[in-house]
């Protein structure tokens, strides 16, 4: 199979590339390296079935050509990470909405009808206050003007773009709503919590818990996420509609900090940092995130292979060996 991945040097994109290379597929990625990191994909360069293209999805001229030979496209290019989203609100809508529109337009014109996996996000659930985050529930968004809202609405717009193109052009599009993926190569530079906690615990400095730490998230190892995406892409019954992809094991951020400290055997303490200090004013924190995975389970045979404890142990091991080799980055 010919796989084309936008944003392929990013965290999830690079795991998709690795997964498909391991399965014997040809993989081409395009990435402008704004969030993605070249180091994420350099190990693949020795594989003759792999090619890297540096390009911005808004302007890259090779797009049409790559789409014309692709069997499956994963659209992962987006502005992500809370720090980046807050700092670059214009980029969020430009890249996430215009970039997706450009890609969809080219796919609609392509004669080979490649299948598309378009990454949505749990952020589309906005400020819904329920633990039952099912795909069909009504969505609630705060009125205040914050960049998080811009990100959530850009992803919701992506879903609507996908549905519209699917209907108008008969395109095959899977729309996974991704819940907090974690794992190797995720950078803490853009705000993601687990790589930050891992680094802090190993350095023996305080773990920075934003707010009182009672907010919850449900973390899914990225190596599970990519399997779920592949399975979803393989079942036409799941196309044209959003499907939650994640892990339903929910944990508070304070408990996550304690778990990392415990598994690291670290002497780090926990420092509570007001949300305002972490993210600036007018920040509406999401208090609970737990996916209902019934739809995914109904559509696919997906099962998680990774527990949160195992992911943390794996990340601690990797971070320690990077520190030992002097190569620790973000
Ligand atoms: N968080 C934290 N300390 C950090 C970074 C993040 O307590 O150093 C919190 C953050 O406020 C949020 C949770 O961890 O409640 C998950 O943050 P992340 O950015 O990883 O994911 P998202 O908020 O987009 O679900």
Structural commentary:
This protein is of the alpha/beta class and 330 residues long. It has a domain of 226 residues: Rossmann fold (3-Layer(aba) Sandwich), CATH 3.40.50.720. It is built from eleven helices and 14 strands. The strands form four sheets. Strands 1, 2, 3, 4, 5, 6, 7 and 12 form an eight-stranded parallel beta sheet that branches. A two-stranded parallel sheet has the order 8-11. Helix 8 crosses helix 11. The longest helix is centred in the middle third of the chain and has 23 residues. The two termini are 33 Å apart.
Keywords:
single chain, 330 residues, alpha/beta, Rossmann fold, eight-stranded parallel sheet, two-stranded parallel ribbon, 11 helices, 14 strands, 40% helix, 16% strand, globular, binds uridine-5'-diphosphate
Number of distinct beta strands: 14
What's the CATH C level of the domain at 2-182 and 220-247 and 289-305? Alpha Beta
What share of the residues lie within helices? 40-55%
Approximate shape: globular
Number of helices: 11
* Amino- and carboxy-terminal Cα gap: 33 Å
CATH fold descriptor of the domain at 2-182 and 220-247 and 289-305: Rossmann fold
CATH architecture of the domain at 2-182 and 220-247 and 289-305: 3-Layer(aba) Sandwich
CATH homology superfamily of the domain at 2-182 and 220-247 and 289-305: NAD(P)-binding Rossmann-like Domain
